[in-house]
Amino acid sequence: LETAVEPLVLRHDEGGIATLTLNRPAQFNAINGAMLDAMLAALAAVERDEAVRVVVLAGAGRAFCPGHDLKEMLANSNREFLADLFRRCCDVMLALRRIPQPVIARVHGIATAAGCQLVAAADLAVAAADARFATSGINFGLFCATPGVPVSRNVSPKRAFEMLMTGDFIDAATACDWGLVNRVVTPERLDAEVAAL
Q1: Three-state DSSP class for 8?
Q2: Which of 100, 112, 115, 127 lies closest to 183, judged by CA?
Q3: Sign of the dihedral defined by the CA atoms of residues 152, 154, 159, 164, in that order
């Protein structure tokens, strides 16, 4: 029997706003190769859609995004696979910057490594007060070199370097103070604040 596969990126349009939701909630929306392809396709479709004035990037379930799917990376730890994976991730980040519509990251739970990169690559970001951010690859033997680029464009170089070298989490209030996010609200106000922005 065939079973329906839930899309890895959900799109919901309302009032000129396209919400793209990362949809691997059981994995906290960890980014795998298939999700990168789905994100690229969704961003390309939004870019061509003149009815869309704003894009909201969100995560399903309990988290925004913890970065790359480490299980997939460990299972395919050859140079060719990883180089292609990181190239496609860069393509997604560049697409976020290229599309004509402003992109708002709607952040809850954790946003780490490439998930933190998504927040930094967005034009604006609103975080729930209990959200946490990190470039934590160093804790797994990986240096978050590519997330480091947009993060260091949002926060000061010394703060970015501290995040990259320690992998320590910062809370939402600190992320706002440092310039990684624009606004911090209570979790129940998150959607309203994104809509207001």
Answers
A1: coil
A2: 127
A3: negative
Which residue type is seen at 63? A
Residue 40, token pair as written in the block: 């690229």
| Amino acid at site 110 | I
CB atoms inside a 10 Å sphere around CB 10: 15
Residues 6 or more apart whose Cβ sits within 8 Å of residue 148: 135, 160, 164
pTM as predicted:
0.94
Q: Can you list the alpha helix ranges (DSSP code H) found in the chain?
A: 33-48, 70-75, 79-98, 114-121, 145-154, 157-166, 172-178, 190-196
- Per-10-residue mean pLDDT of the chain, 197 residues long, equals 69 98 97 96 97 98 96 89 92 96 98 97 98 90 83 96 95 98 98 95
The answer to whether the CB of 128 falls within 8 A of the CB of 62 is no
